[in-house]
Amino acid sequence: MRVAIPHNLDNDTVRQRMKAKSHEIADYVPGGATVETAWPSDDRMSMTIGAMGQEVSGNVDLEPGQLVFEVQLPMMLSFLEPMIRGAVEKGGQKLLAPPKE
Q1: Which of 5, 64, 88, 99 has the largest CB neighbor count within 10 A?
Q2: 2-96 — its CATH code?
Q3: Domain boundaries in the chain?
């Protein structure tokens, strides 16, 4: 599953917000989840998500003008793709939002 979230921010700002808010990703997964993140490069965050007894891997790539979430859904969870896609779109916008003061 690939979900692109358009934005008009520079990659430094996106990177800063993603690093500051990556601990919130589990909050956007329907049904609750555990999420581990790492930054193998400046423009890629890798994720391991545990939810509903399954573990999925994915990446978030910072591209000019968009943040791209890619998650490898196991066949068992493929029927949930529309719901997961919606959660990623909504959660991605929240991760990109400026910090609350």
Answers
A1: 88
A2: 3.30.310
A3: 2-96
